From TrEMBL:
Key words of the record: ATP-binding, Cell membrane, Membrane, Nucleotide-binding, Translocase, Transport
InterPro entries: AAA+_ATPase, ABC_transporter-like_ATP-bd, ABC_transporter-like_CS, ABC_transpr_PhnC, MetN_ABC_transporter-like, P-loop_NTPase
Name the UniProt record assigns to this protein: Phosphonate transport system ATP-binding protein
SMART domains linked: AAA (SM00382)
UniProt-listed Pfam families: ABC_tran
Annotated Gene3D superfamilies: P-loop containing nucleotide triphosphate hydrolases
Length: 271
């Protein structure tokens, strides 16, 4: 179980994340939603310690993630794989080597340094590519792939890390609708097939409702909704997104509510 206990992050006088507490059961698929600047990326980045909290604690089982250093921190980052909007592949390297980079934590330091991959590592990487229908691209340079293909390579690289948690930060933000589906299906697959917990920042509310079994709504760094997608009414969503509601909800849902403009605080659903 991953536990956030009063986690906050300040940047100078700006509070990006404000006393967030939440528990994530193994195997859940959680969507983090909210308008731009709500604190979603900062929250995910704190979980794998790309950003350190300024207050609060993050625990995984009996481990205090907030205090990990050195090799233990590296091991945590491997268990807690991150997927980025911009894929973060090494463009000049071939696809298979990019996926093998996810195995670095599983090989000895000298072998890692020389990139001496074992047959087993290669087989693991290839089968991850097969799982997402892109094994035929193994020898291609990563920078010759489409955005959707690159993101599937990034998910394959995350998968071969053998993570317990995948943190996906707007993984489909730069993709067309068809590739959006393919990439979301790939995340759902690793969640359902391997029981990997997925925490996914999403801008589109329809996607969040369609793929996630729990939604966390953030506003100004705080959690203002935590519950099942069905519990997120259109009125709560409109309050959560404010002026961005039209972008994230389909046209029928996005029509202004009778009270829109009157309510300044999002409707709170107890966490
Ligand atoms: N490194 C940083 N230095 C200063 N301010 C930051 C930094 N990172 C984030 N912030 C600020 O913290 C707030 C939350 O940012 P964050 O990126 O977490 O929001 P978000 O919900 O992910 O937004 P978006 O959907 O636009 O990515 C914003 O006001 C942002 O400007």
């Amino acid at each position: 179980m991953l536990v956030l206990d009063g986690v906050s992050r300040k940047f100078s006088d700006k509070t990006a994340v404000d006393q967030v507490s939440a528990e994530f059961a193994p195997g859940s698929f959680v969507g983090i939603i909210g308008r731009s600047g709500a604190g979603k990326s900062t929250l995910l980045r704190m979980i794998n310690r790309l950003v350190d909290p300024t207050a609060g604690a993050i625990r995984f089982g009996d481990r205090d993630v907030t205090r990990l250093k050195g090799a233990e921190l590296d091991a945590w980052r491997a268990r807690c794989a991150m997927i980025f909007q911009q894929f973060n592949l090494i463009g000049r390297l071939d696809v298979l080597t990019n996926v093998l980079m996810g195995r670095l934590d599983h090989v000895s330091a000298p072998r890692a340094l020389l990139r001496l991959w074992s047959d087993e590592d290669r087989a693991i990487a290839l089968s991850a590519l097969e799982m997402f229908g892109i094994a035929d691209l193994a020898a291609k340079r990563a920078d010759q792939l489409s955005g959707g293909q690159q993101q599937r390579v990034a998910i394959a690289r995350a998968l071969v890390q053998e993570p317990r948690i995948v943190l996906a930060d707007e993984p489909i933000a730069s993709l067309d609708p068809r590739n959006t589906r393919i990439v979301m299906d790939a995340l759902l697959r690793i969640n359902r097939h391997f029981g990997i917990t997925v925490l996914c920042n999403l801008h589109s509310l329809d996607l969040a409702r369609g793929y996630c079994d729990r939604l966390i709504g953030m506003s100004a760094g705080r959690v203002v909704f935590d519950g099942a997608p069905a519990a997120l009414t259109d009125d709560v969503a409109r309050d959560l997104y404010g002026l961005e509601a039209g972008e994230v909800m389909d046209a029928a849902h996005a029509a202004p509510a009778a009270h829109a403009g009157g309510a300044s605080q999002p409707s709170a659903v107890p966490a």
